[in-house]
Specification:
- The protein has 2 helices and 12 strands.
- 11% of the residues lie in helices and 50% in strands.
- The strands form 3 sheets. Strands 3-2-6-9-10-5-4 form a 7-stranded antiparallel sheet. Strands 1-11-12 form a 3-stranded antiparallel sheet, with no helix packed on it. It has a two-stranded antiparallel ribbon with strand order 7-8.
- It is mostly beta strands.
Length: 148
């Protein structure tokens, strides 16, 4: 799958008064009616537990200019508290953080969770969306970040 270029997004949630975030390149549209999207998250990690408990999450699709955010939120073991303060952001209706510089943002409520080996597949119904900025997309291919 390394040859398959994907977009890069940061998925966020808020649980127990703490913001949680992770970089994802497994974001996929599932259905238009109702509007469903999915992403995959590694079992047993902090984000896995937080997003399943919260039941709602946000997605910020990153432009090439936010590669540093993609790298930061992909790093395991990084501190959670205050991590997102490096980038302009706002809270969506769900309470999840959304990045102002994103090419697209959406919020979703978890509709289903499916087994996916060492990951789980989280499917959500889209409750809000927007396109806050323009720019070239950040891509990931062959274990490297690229621009579209």
């Amino acid at each position: 799958m390394a040859r398959f270029a994907t977009g890069v997004a940061v998925v966020t949630t808020r649980h127990g008064g703490t913001d949680h975030a992770m970089t994802a390149n497994s974001l996929t549209s599932v259905s238009l009616d109702p509007p469903l999207v999915l992403f995959c998250v590694r079992r047993g990690g902090r984000f896995h537990d937080a997003v399943l408990a919260a039941g709602a999450w946000g997605v910020s699709v990153l432009p090439a200019s936010m590669e540093d955010a993609g790298r930061f939120f992909a790093r395991p073991g990084r501190p959670e508290a205050g991590a997102a303060t490096r980038w302009p952001r706002h809270r969506g209706r769900s309470g999840a953080l959304l990045f102002d510089g994103a090419l697209a943002v959406l919020e979703a409520e978890t509709r289903a969770v499916h087994d996916g080996g060492d990951h789980v597949i989280v499917v959500g119904v889209v409750t809000a969306l927007g396109t806050p900025s323009d720019g070239r997309p950040l891509l990931y291919q062959d274990s490297r970040y690229r621009t579209g």
